[in-house]
Structures are given as structure tokens and as C-alpha cells.
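Give me C-alpha cells for this 93-residue protein.
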Amino acid sequence: MLKVDSTIFDICANISSNIDKLSDDTGLLSQNILSQLRNLVEAIISKIYIVDNGLGDYEVDFDKTITPGIKHVKRKFKYKFLIDFHNALKISN
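Here you go.
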């Protein structure tokens, strides 16, 4: 399994765990879920960038995959929803 895939699975597990505990402290858990959703979108953007550029087994990294990944997906209209969702999640934090 690629490192980026492992990161995506870990984030999904974290989100699921937070959803399971929502009755405990909805404010804190909701904030955590929003943060994890942003991380998930960034990991997915990284995966697209890594695969489209044939970079191999990279970890999600702000400078190496997220920043160039965002620039990469902004140039492709079919990924506009990811950028829009990412921007909305940044505002909510």
C-alpha cells in the first residue's frame, strides 16, 4: 500500500471514530471532524498529484505534495469541487 493511501485510510478511521463519539462532546468532536476532513481533502489532492505525475510512493507533505497538488488540481476543471471544498474547510477552521 502506498504511503499516501495509508494516510487516507488513517484519516478516514479517525473521522469514523469521532462520528461514533459525537454524543460525548459535539462541539469539540465536530471541530475535530472538520479538521480531519481538511486533512482528507489534502491527502486526496496529494494522491491525485502523485499519481498524475508518476512520483511513486510519497507521503503526504505540505511542501512536496499538498502545495504543488493544489496548484495541479486547480488547473483541471474536473477537480474544481475539491478546491471549492478545501477552501470551505479552511474558512471553517
